[in-house]
Design goal:
Blueprint lengths: L1 E5 L2 E3 L21 E3 L1 H15 L5 E8 L3 H11 L3 E6 L6 H15 L3 E4 L3 E4 L4 E8 L2 E8 L2 E4 L12 H9 L3 E3 L32 H10 L5
Parallel strand pairs: 1-4, 1-6, 4-5, 5-11, 6-10
Antiparallel strand pairs: 2-3, 7-8, 8-9
Helix pairs in contact: 2-4
C-alpha cells in the first residue's frame, strides 16, 4: 500500500509572527520557515506504518513556489521514498488545494492520505482504525481504504533527520508537476480584507478568597 502525506511550508513555530504594515497578511520575508508540525507528525506516523510492514511506500507532496523543495527534502531526509512538488507561484486557497490533492490521488492511487491522527491498519480487511478526540474522550472508528486522515499534536514524537539522510535527500529527485498538468484551474475563491494582531490579553490579578473569585466569575466574566 502507498501512503501519501501532504506537507506544508509555514513560519517556524518558534518565530513570533508579525503582521505586515499594510495589514495584507503576515510577514514572511527573512523569516525562518519549516514544515508544519502537524504535517511532521502525520509523516512520522506514515513512516511508522511503513516500518511495521503495513505500507510499501511513503510519498510526500507539497504545493507552492520553489521554496517548497526545502520542505520536501526534509520529508525525504526523515525517510519518505518519493517527493512531488506541485509548482505554482499563484496563491493557493483551500478549494484549489483540495482539487490538486484530488488529482494527485487519482494519479498516484494511494491507499491512505495522511494529514495525520492515530492509525491502526488491518491488512487482511483493508481497513483503518482511527481514534479521534470528542467531547469527553476518544471515539474509535473503522474506515475502509482508501481513506483520508488528519493529525493531532499528541499522536507521536517526530524523528530527527540524521546528517547522512539529509545528505542523501539532497541528491534525490523531486518530481515537479503543474496545476495545468493536473488539469486544475486555480482561481481565488476567498478575499482577505485585513489581517490584524489578536487583542492583547489583560494582565492577571491576585484574589484574596474563593468568594472574590466567584464574585468576579459571576459579575465580570458572566460565566456562572
Amino acid at each position: 500500500m502507498r501512503i501519501m502525506v501532504a506537507v506544508k511550508r509555514v513560519i517556524d513555530y518558534a518565530v513570533k509572527i508579525r503582521v505586515k504594515p499594510d495589514k495584507s497578511g503576515v510577514e514572511t520575508n527573512n523569516v525562518k520557515m519549516s514544515m508544519n508540525p502537524f504535517c511532521e507528525i502525520a509523516l512520522e506516523e506514515a513512516l511508522r506504518i511503513k516500518e511495521s510492514g503495513n505500507a510499501s511506500e511513503v510519498v510526500v507532496v507539497s504545493m507552492g513556489g520553489p521554496q517548497c523543495a526545502e520542505t520536501l527534502r526534509t520529508g525525504l531526509a526523515m525517510g519518505a521514498d518519493r517527493a512531488i512538488h506541485v509548482a505554482t507561484e499563484t496563491s493557493l486557497y483551500p478549494l484549489a488545494v483540495a482539487k490538486l490533492l484530488q488529482s494527485l490521488v487519482a494519479t498516484e492511487q494511494p491507499g491512505l492520505v495522511m494529514l495525520g491522527k492515530q492509525v491502526v491498519l488491518d491488512k487482511e480487511k483493508q481497513s483503518v482504525t482511527v481514534d479521534r478526540e470528542v467531547d469527553g474522550g476518544l471515539e474509535t472508528v473503522r474506515l475502509d481504504l482508501p481513506a483520508v486522515i488528519t493529525s493531532d499534536l499528541r499522536l507521536n514524537q517526530p524523528r530527527y533527520a540524521t546528517l547522512p539522510n539529509i545528505m542523501k535527500a539532497k541528491s534525490k529527485t523531486i518530481k515537479k508537476v503543474t496545476p495545468e498538468e493536473l488539469q486544475v484551474q486555480i482561481k481565488p475563491d476567498l478575499e482577505i480584507l485585513e489581517v490584524v494582531d489578536p487583542p492583547k490579553r489583560k494582565s492577571g490579578v491576585m484574589l484574596s478568597s474563593v468568594d472574590e473569585l466567584i464574585d468576579k466569575l459571576k459579575n465580570e466574566a458572566h460565566v456562572i
